[in-house]
Write a structure and sequence with these properties.
This protein is an alpha+beta fold. It is built from three helices and five strands. Strands 1-3-4-5-2 form a five-stranded antiparallel beta sheet, covered by helices on one side. The protein starts with 14 loop residues before the first strand and ends with a strand.
Length: 122
């Protein structure tokens, strides 16, 4: 069975996020997820990454925070992770509304997605 791919918004990104090199360590303190791929370039390279990468759940949560004030009282969120976010780095956030569905994505400078998501109200 082939996995369903979520559709990314077609709207241009509206926010630029500048992510510091220590974001993985900051998030690890809060989440207690001290996976070495998030902590430093040295430990990330041991697992095939050129630099530390952001936690996927941080990218997911930051996307929902970007929608703050525009969220319904109850909703379901689905996300797909496309590629890691290298730290330090810059990513762009895009969102659009299509009926009851809100699509969002976190993309690189070339518009390639790191994360694609959709939010539907209950």
């Amino acid at each position: 069975m082939k996995a369903e791919h979520l559709a990314a918004p077609t709207a241009a990104p509206s926010q630029l996020w500048r992510l510091p090199a220590d974001l993985g360590r900051q998030y690890a303190k809060v989440s207690e997820d001290a996976n070495p791929i998030h902590l430093s370039p040295v430990t990330a390279r041991m697992f095939g990454f050129p630099r530390a990468i952001a936690h996927g759940m941080w990218v997911h949560a930051r996307s929902l925070a970007a929608l703050s004030g525009r969220l319904p009282a109850a909703y379901t969120v689905r996300v797909q992770f496309a590629k890691p976010v290298l730290l330090p780095g810059k990513v762009w956030f895009a969102t659009e509304v299509d009926g009851d569905l809100r699509r969002f994505s976190v993309v690189n400078k070339d518009g390639k997605p790191h994360l694609v998501g959709e939010l539907t109200p209950h």
